[in-house]
Amino acid sequence: MDARENFLGVLDPRLGPLADNGGPTRTHAPLADSPAVDTGVDALSVGLDGMPLSNDQRGPGFPRRGGTAVDAGAMESGFSVDRSAPEASSLVVTTLDDLSDRFDGQTSLREALSYAADLPGSRSSHSSAAWPGS
Fold it and tell me: Domain locations in the chain?
């Protein structure tokens, strides 16, 4: 994420089609495996008055927070992601998204390279400062 809490390098945000998901406007619902689920910043989920939002974009009846944190975006999915324990290290790349999230259940090329560098006997080294977007 950048300083404005925008996701960078996401090739597929895993959102449903623009649809009537309730409320006065159509929205893209985050899918269960969307990187938007539970990755919003509660402190930034405030109205113009600076008070925490109680509803998402759809209005009353649609709570702004449904999981361990608000979802990134205008609509709360209601899904929750367990971020209490990181996923197992894997050298098998399972997503084309350029993300580094040890709790998303997927392995990006960036993560696989990081895991490989940490293997015993590895001749490569890396610094998170050398990896753009880390």
Answer: 1-84, 85-134
